[in-house]
Write a structure and sequence with these properties.
The structure is a single chain. This protein is of the alpha/beta class. The strands form two sheets. The protein has a five-stranded mixed sheet with strand order 3-2-1-4-5. A hairpin with a 3-residue loop joins β6 and β7. The longest helix has 25 residues. It is globular.
Length: 316
């Protein structure tokens, strides 16, 4: 039987599996639910269900029996980290080689097609991660919403809420963010909105989605909202530079890619690109492939293979 390879991208919104053959053809793909945390509440059950769903769907599309399939190599990356997941996966999957990592290595592998470079991720939180030609890796950021995640969507909304509160209390400049955020949340005042954000009905992921309101307000010309997004881009460029400086020589050509919902903002994306490309050698671009394809590339690499991928589906 031909060798099979598995790549999985597990995140806070969904889990995606790709199965590839020994020639780099993607023969099956599947999607499951979120699987970010295993130890919190019903996290283990959600994790088992998400992996089972995406793997079953991918095997079904590939014409494989999910109960008996064995992979030559498998790579699985998770936004919540690998430590609490690896023992469970070794019970669920049969693979001659298995790598379990954070989401950053698979995002970089997808972004560059497995080549060296730096990836900056800005979703709810933020992190920059890179790997050079010698295989040495480095990171900056990604320390969570209390101590880090500068430039991420939650941080953007936090800054916007602070601006709305300062206007309401009379010690900050006027900003359209005040009215727009209240309308989006259905709150009567900035104080009411702030208290909503401390309830279970408003987890960080829901708060982070208000970053779209900040972007729309900035695009409409509000200077306070624009300044918040410019600061976010600056923060993301700074952690990118920190990783680059740890791994690459001055003037060395480095591919820098970006991924995550924050980069859907034209203002953030364009300012980030301008700032990063001020450094000689840096070239900023969108990813070649999504993270699930990056996980598949890493699975091939673990087996000493570097095939071109064919038939990668649209995973949006």
């Amino acid at each position: 039987m031909k060798a099979l390879f598995l790549g999985v991208d597990g995140g806070q919104s969904s889990t995606i599996a790709l199965i590839g053959d020994e020639n780099g053809n993607v023969i099956g793909s599947g999607r499951g639910g979120p699987c970010n945390h295993v130890k919190s509440g019903d996290g283990r059950e959600k994790f088992l269900r998400a992996i089972g769903e995406c793997l079953s769907a991918a095997c079904r599309e590939a014409g494989l029996d999910v109960e008996s399939v064995e992979f030559e190599s498998a790579c699985l990356g998770f936004s919540g980290g690998p430590q609490d997941k690896e023992p469970i996966l070794k019970e669920m999957l049969r693979a001659r080689r298995m790598m379990v990592s954070t989401d950053a290595p698979i995002a970089l592998a997808g972004a560059t097609g497995g080549e060296p470079g730096v990836i900056t991720i800005a979703g709810t939180g933020s992190i920059s991660w890179g790997r050079n030609g010698e295989g040495r890796a480095a990171r900056a950021g990604g320390w969570g919403y209390i101590f880090g995640d500068e430039g991420g969507a939650f941080d953007i909304v936090r800054q916007a809420l602070r601006a709305a509160l300062r206007q309401e209390e009379g010690w900050g400049p006027p900003t359209a963010l005040h009215a727009r955020l209240l309308e989006a949340a259905g709150a009567g005042s900035a104080n009411d909105l702030l208290h909503l954000c401390y309830t279970a009905d408003w987890p960080r992921s829901r708060i982070a989605r208000l970053s779209k309101v900040v972007d729309e307000t900035a695009e409409a010309g509000d200077p306070v909202a624009r300044q918040i997004l410019e600061r976010a881009a600056q923060n993301l460029a700074e952690i990118t530079a920190a990783v680059r400086n740890q791994l690459f020589q001055e003037g060395e050509t480095v591919r820098v890619a970006y991924i995550g919902g924050v980069f859907k903002s034209r203002l953030v994306r364009e300012r980030f690109t301008r700032l990063v490309e001020l450094t000689e050698g840096n070239a900023v671009s969108a990813p070649l492939y999504p993270p699930a394809a990056g996980a598949l590339i890493e699975a091939y690499a673990a087996a000493g293979m570097r095939p071109h991928l064919f038939g990668v589906p649209d995973l949006k």
